[in-house]
């Protein structure tokens, strides 16, 4: 076993602590199949960043194709240098990487995902509605849009939430800090940071910063209905013994509020 390293590669640390693209491929495929009784093939990942999910998607099945969309040149360049280069020639042909605004109409796909709460960068209702319209126009007849959202009684409290990340064979254990710097209950606008810290090593303060409007589940579902989605459903994540999500989601319309919760809001065309 190779010696684990201390790295200041913020994208690698983000992948270890926030993303789980292999599991996400399975989750979104299962959601699509549960709602349509079909298997999905075409994915669009909005606000894709380094588009690790898209790479895993085209690797998962030989008929799968993906579109990655992000406006950040640095993140896309990182993905091309570190993930895209490891794909086979056939897999590369089935992945289209676009540097552009995610408010875009593209060729039709089975699934559009906007993960890591990225659509919360849209602060105005009219802008989010416009985004949903473009998504609807880019979905095939049985297509779905999947958003994730977090909440809970602690989600609006100004604090630093810390998790130790120790699940990587190549990177030394480190602390992931999610800093809630501000939350305005009137506008529901918030300011968050992500820090990465080693016990015996350097730290990366404000590796990522976000100015979000924290939309509510009813707001998202009402907007989906307004633009023409036939229905919306909520997939609620179970809670593990550590108080964090356990990665298992189920359809639900009634839940008790908890300290922290995570859910998928799914719009079906």
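-> sequence recovered:
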């Amino acid at each position: 076993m190779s010696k684990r390293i201390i790295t200041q590669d913020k994208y690698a640390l983000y992948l270890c602590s926030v993303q789980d693209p292999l599991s996400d491929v399975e989750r979104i495929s299962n959601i699509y199949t549960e709602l349509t009784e079909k298997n999905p093939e075409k994915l669009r990942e909005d606000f894709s960043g380094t588009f690790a999910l898209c790479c895993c998607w085209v690797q998962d099945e030989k008929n799968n194709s993906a579109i990655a969309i992000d406006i950040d040149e640095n993140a896309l360049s990182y993905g091309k240098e570190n993930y895209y280069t490891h794909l086979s020639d056939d897999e590369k042909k089935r992945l289209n990487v676009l540097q552009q605004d995610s408010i875009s109409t593209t060729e039709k796909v089975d699934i559009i995902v906007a993960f890591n709460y990225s659509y919360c960068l849209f602060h105005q209702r009219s802008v989010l509605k416009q985004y949903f319209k473009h998504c609807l126009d880019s979905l095939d007849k049985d297509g779905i849009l999947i958003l994730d959202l977090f909440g809970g009684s602690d989600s609006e409290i100004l604090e630093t939430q810390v998790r130790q990340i120790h699940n990587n064979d190549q990177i030394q254990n480190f602390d992931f800090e999610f800093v809630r710097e501000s939350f305005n209950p009137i506008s529901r606008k918030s300011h968050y940071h992500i820090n990465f810290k080693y016990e015996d090593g350097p730290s990366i303060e404000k590796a990522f910063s976000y100015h979000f409007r924290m939309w509510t589940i009813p707001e998202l579902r009402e907007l989906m209905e307004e633009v023409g989605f036939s229905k919306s459903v909520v997939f609620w994540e179970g809670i593990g013994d550590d108080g964090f999500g356990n990665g298992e989601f189920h359809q639900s319309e009634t839940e008790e509020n908890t300290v922290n919760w995570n859910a998928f809001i799914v719009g079906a065309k």
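The chain has two domains: 10-151+215-268, 160-212.
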